[in-house]
Fold this sequence. Notes:
Number of helices: 14
Distance between the termini: 28 Å
Shape: globular
Structural class: mainly alpha
Amino acid sequence: MQQEPHPLPGGLWKRNALLNLAGLGLPLCAALVAVPILLRALGQDRFGVLTLAWALVSYFGVFDLGLGRALTKLVAERIGSRDEQELPGLISSSLTWLVLLGLGTGALLYGAAPWIATRGLSLPSHLHQETREGLRILALSLPVVLPSTGLRGLLEAHQKFARITAIRIPMGVLAFAGPLIVLPYSSRLAAVLAVLVVARIVGFVAYLFSCRHWLPRLPQWTSWNRSLSLQALHLGGWMTVSNLVSPLLLYLDRFVIAALLPVAAVAFYATPFEVVSRLGIVPAALMGVLFPAFSSTLATAPGEARRLYHRSQQILLVALLPLAALVVIFARPALTLWLGEEFAQASYRVAQIFAVSAVVHGLAQPSFHLLQAAGRPKTTALLHLLEAPLYLLYLLPLTLHFGIVGTATAALLRVTFSCLALSFLARRIISPRGLAAEANQPGSGGLP
């Protein structure tokens, strides 16, 4: 099995970060073209449901019990320490769990689709059947979505970001442009959402092929290792809490709006979110590379881990501030040109608030990923659990009294609290005293 140099060379992580940025950023071009067309063709109500579907597709990965991220961490640790004897059992056990979880959660979503369509969301009656059919179609993608997270985690641990980018770009483009393909034939939600499922299936096949290429022994790794399986589940269990609560906090506002306000307000809120949140591709691209680097260097090269942490914060601040300023200044004229005066009037203040949130959220990412790479997912999980009830305390009244502007303000307050808390906790670990304490813990294996 190929081994990466250790510690991670600066040129390698910078190149991989740029590849990640391309894979996450290029699909935005498809979104800019597709969103206005879809909005006009589907109408505000159907388009609102489509934005919820995009949120669900993003949220599906939380059902992997954290095994995708745990697999990345544990494989990267073993690559960093040159101890790869346990990898066959670790990978085989984790992928088996992911397949079983995909089948189980897919069945649950399929069965719950009627209740969600008729009672869980505030939808016009004529959309109930379409939404039910669409949710059931999305449920069929779960048995391939969850194993895909594990396969992508293997590639990330081996720093194979060129392959990941080659898969992400067409998948991301298809998520936005794919629905345009079926519009000449049908505007029903089931037909539109079926394209999202096709994209996920194609992505799974591509990830599987890529892993077989880089890890030729993968098809023969059928052994089940109970100890390694429990280790991955233990680490992934706390990661799952964050994986469940964090996206829920991110997308909860849409469902609150759908429940408290007319469903068309979801489109006014979610559309600027989908665009402005793309600023998050900068920290996402960087952290996708640095998480396995943190995992492999914290124990064996702590000085390198500290350098990567501080350097990543500097890069994010310099990259995000100018982009956010452009959004604040040009939000209204840009939305007017793109979607019309009525839409811009309802959405531009939301876009401006999201721009500030994007900077704060981005600056929190190095701290969050460092804590998880250090084997402290319990810390991030408990923080998210504390965040959730506090968020609801002001999300509901702000939405009721100030509409979607109040909702966006509540989201900004949430990410500010999270950023400050994560930064405090991460800096305690990355300090020389904290790193010394980590190194003196015997046989932790990355467990909390």
